[in-house]
Amino acid sequence: MSCHGRTPWETVMSYSESGNTWRNDGGAQPHAYDPYLHPELFRGVATRRVFAFLIDMVVISVPVILGYIFIALFGVVTLGIGWALFWLAWPASVIWAIVYYGACIGGPSSATIGMRVMDLELRTWYGAPGYFVLGATHAVLFWVTVSFLTPFVVLLGLFNGRRRLLHDFVLGTVVINNSVRVPAPQAARTY
Questions:
Q1: Which end of the chain is more exposed for a tag (fewer CB within 10 A), N or C?
Q2: Would residue 58 count as lying in a domain?
Q3: Dist CA 127 CA 113 (whole Å)
């Protein structure tokens, strides 16, 4: 016996005659990482996340600073004409930061260089690894929330078990310790 919904938002349920159990195949998935069942996944995440951010700022800043130095020297060599490139430096810096976060979080380790150094990784709330658009959006939303709500964004992480910040709640992501990661629960088999 099965009941299948007509739209993607409807819950799909199936009944197994042999085991007399109902199973929900649609709707909301449970959180893959529970802070009460696996507290080791979240131990020290908030502090190490700050240091990972600082390392990432250094990684992002070095090419930007080298670009500004190149433009300054190029302007001297071209008797000031090359300094017109300074108007491209700020947009290029923003694009570089977005590409950096997107490529790193969308990569196989699902973490930026700073997060890898601090042994952290970003996952979706249901346990999937990050992808490029999620990483880029995560960075943009972080900068937007920090720009408008600085103290509240940081304080929010102290009052929840998963140490999630505001942009993590909005995007449905969680940052966990990489070395103690527990595999995400698999869907029940229906033989």
A1: C
A2: yes
A3: 20
C-alpha R_g of the chain: 22
Instruction: Dump the DSSP string for 80-146.
Output: TGGGGGHHHHHHHHHHHHHHHHHHHHTSTT-S-HHHHHTTEEEEETTSPBP-HHHHHHHHHHHHHHH
Q: Which residue has 């658009």 as its token pair? A: 133
> How far apart are alpha carbons 123 and 130 in whole angstroms?
6
Model confidence pLDDT, tens digit, residues 120-155: 999 998 889 999 999 999 999 999 988 888 767 778
Q: How far is CA 152 from CA 16, 56, 130, 141, in A?
A: 48, 22, 25, 14
The boundaries of the domain holding residue 65 are 43-128
pTM of the model: 0.76
Q: Per the domain annotation, does 76 fall within a domain?
A: yes
| Residue 95 amino acid letter | I
Has residue 158 been placed in a domain? no
Q: How far apart are CA 188 and CA 16, in angstroms?
A: 12
